[in-house]
Amino acid sequence: MRLFLAVNFDDATKQRILAVQRRLREAAQGDFSRPENLHLTLAFLGEVSAQRAAAARRAMDRTGAVPLSLTFDQIGSFRRDGGDIWWVGLAENPALLRLRQELCGNLIAEGFHLEERRFSPHITIARRVRLSQEVDCGAILGAPFEASADTVSLMRSERPNGVLTYTEQYSVCAGRDEP
């Protein structure tokens, strides 16, 4: 199973992100993320056996989850051959960074090898993007917006019939009693 840990969003937050995506669509071509796939990746685990998935769940249980107040205040892209990845980014958030750091520490204690690149919290809204005109990132973002989240999810990534699909396998919510 190809797994990652993420924060998923409620429908109202997804609608705000999709509004940004719609404005980008007006100036670009690419593969735009489906609404049900919008998430904030905390840690990518890669190909994981069922036994290792249990270790990820243990790490999540030890970490728990905390209520987060997130501010979406930027848009940008990661340059790639074949088209760029466009994203909506988050303002600096110490609580999110602490949650991720604790989660990664618990995953490492369970034997996972995680990517070492700098954490750049973002939600991917499109891949393989080619701009058809100059864009004003501020106009595409619109006004910054806020959302709350209180759940960390273990997600499975697969491509049934060629369609990228993310499915929640397990979750830990803030305030939930220990298992």
UniProtKB/TrEMBL annotation:
<feature type="active site" description="Proton acceptor">
    <location>
        <position position="122"/>
    </location>
</feature>
<dbReference type="GO" id="GO:0008664">
    <property type="term" value="F:RNA 2',3'-cyclic 3'-phosphodiesterase activity"/>
</dbReference>
<dbReference type="Pfam" id="PF13563">
    <property type="entry name" value="2_5_RNA_ligase2"/>
</dbReference>
<dbReference type="InterPro" id="IPR004175">
    <property type="entry name" value="RNA_CPDase"/>
</dbReference>
<comment type="function">
    <text>Hydrolyzes RNA 2',3'-cyclic phosphodiester to an RNA 2'-phosphomonoester.</text>
</comment>
<feature type="short sequence motif" description="HXTX 2">
    <location>
        <begin position="122"/>
        <end position="125"/>
    </location>
</feature>
<keyword id="KW-0378">Hydrolase</keyword>
<feature type="active site" description="Proton donor">
    <location>
        <position position="39"/>
    </location>
</feature>
<comment type="similarity">
    <text>Belongs to the 2H phosphoesterase superfamily. ThpR family.</text>
</comment>
<feature type="short sequence motif" description="HXTX 1">
    <location>
        <begin position="39"/>
        <end position="42"/>
    </location>
</feature>
<dbReference type="InterPro" id="IPR009097">
    <property type="entry name" value="Cyclic_Pdiesterase"/>
</dbReference>
<protein>
    <recommendedName>
        <fullName>RNA 2',3'-cyclic phosphodiesterase</fullName>
        <ecNumber>3.1.4.58</ecNumber>
    </recommendedName>
</protein>
<dbReference type="GO" id="GO:0004113">
    <property type="term" value="F:2',3'-cyclic-nucleotide 3'-phosphodiesterase activity"/>
</dbReference>
